[in-house]
Write a structure and sequence with these properties.
The structure is a homotetramer of 130-residue chains.
Chain A: H1 11-24, H2 37-44, H3 48-60, E1 64-67, E2 71-74, H4 78-103, H5 108-123
Antiparallel strand pairs in A: 1-2
Helix pairs in contact in A: 1-3, 1-4, 2-3
Chain A binds a DNA duplex (15 and 15 nucleotides) through helix 3.
Chain lengths: 130, 130, 130, 130
DNA sequence: GTGGTCTAGACCACA
DNA sequence: GTGGTCTAGACCACG
């Protein structure tokens, strides 16, 4: 994972979203421990406080829980919670985009066209190159 | 129009987006003047500085221009600019939502389903457009 | 208000509890603004970050909300929320004490005696002195 | 007994409180030996260091004493000490709850009501005691 | 080893 | 003026 410091999205949010994605995708399973705050802070080259804030958020949401002397572990409900949150977030972004487009009187067809282009663009993965 | 002070979207951006929409939709036509800063500030119950910042942004984008002794008037290119801006913004929102959904390993089909629901929920207002 | 740095209760918790009490008691009414983070930090001689964390907690709980450019204001539901929280917290403390006492096989009457003494002691207010 | 790893109460304290209760209730009598550190650690599925810390605390309090080659045995004064400790702890919890309730301007009557509910909810186990 | 709290101080966005 | 974020670094409690 890599942090983007040129966006307005706070770093702790990027981290939280990243973990949500990994939990929702089954990379971190219930009962498993997340990377320790310090380890992740070193890996991402950010301050431990920043990682902690991200983990705190996931804790409040019930996605993970703190096990004393161990660390943060994914809860049973974590996968469901993560999936829901990401779906809701995605839906919120879509709605926001639709409102913007509609305010310009862009037709439904054109809106779908914009969405389709976004879909195919995001589907591109790097394939190598020089 | 109404301002939402409880969202994370800055007020000045809400105003700017609103004006972009009206220009793109042909409510404000090239050569026509926008509501004066003071008038709009009073109507929206916001600080004039905030309206100023919104208008400044539209000015930088070339959507409107300041005509001395008159006020901000829509430029010739304004409609096109407004449309572009909103389309790009919509596209950005879509991309952001897609990234979130993909991070959770949500299938393309499901993503389209989420989008479709957002489309129908937002409701159709007028026909026309592109 | 005064901060007690000799307890295990975090400073931000003390601050949050203090505000909860003031809201529940009607000192801060719905729609009214809390002391600004910086002002309170200076008054209590703590770091602004610490006050912010307290306010954040109250925000998550729905007791206050952030109004852009203004500050944190008490919500409509704030009074009810604060009262509920404090009542629940009090009840939790009572339950904890009861469990401890019962584990020692202390009779119900004796437990009530302990409680009564705590009640009368807490009722004492300073009355002057040299 | 069962350890709760999700509470803010340290495990070593849960263990110490448990032993205090058993001594105060006469389950462990003066001169009798406590379960060995290793045995209790295995039974509770915790680190032996944690049990050690609990026993140390009881030792400092004079509730038990380490007899070389034997283990921790309850002292003569142990019952009295245990009872005192638990009573003080209970009293502390009560005071804390009362402070919280008073800060919300909850009437003395209501506070007693909250306490009564906590009492009845906690249920009566055995008779006897003081 | 794990996380929790706090400080000092900086920089930014918004109204 | 308001709050939001982040860093560097310290100290503590727990297991």
């Amino acid at each position: 994972m890599s942090i983007n410091t040129n966006t307005s999205v706070p770093i702790y949010q990027q981290i939280a979203d990243h973990v949500r994605g990994r939990v929702a995708a089954g990379i971190h399973r219930p009962g498993e421990m997340l990377p320790s705050i310090r380890a992740l802070a070193i890996e991402l080259v950010v301050n431990p406080n920043t990682v902690q804030r991200a983990y705190d958020e996931l804790d409040w949401e019930g996605l993970v829980e703190l096990r004393r002397g161990v660390g943060f572990v994914v809860t049973e409900q974590g996968v469901r919670v993560a999936r829901n949150q990401l779906e809701q977030a995605a839906r919120g972004s879509f709605s926001q985009g639709i409102v913007l487009a509609r305010s310009a009187n862009i037709s439904e067809e054109s809106i779908r066209g914009i969405f389709d282009r976004a879909m195919s663009d995001s589907g591109v993965r790097e394939g190598g190159g020089t």
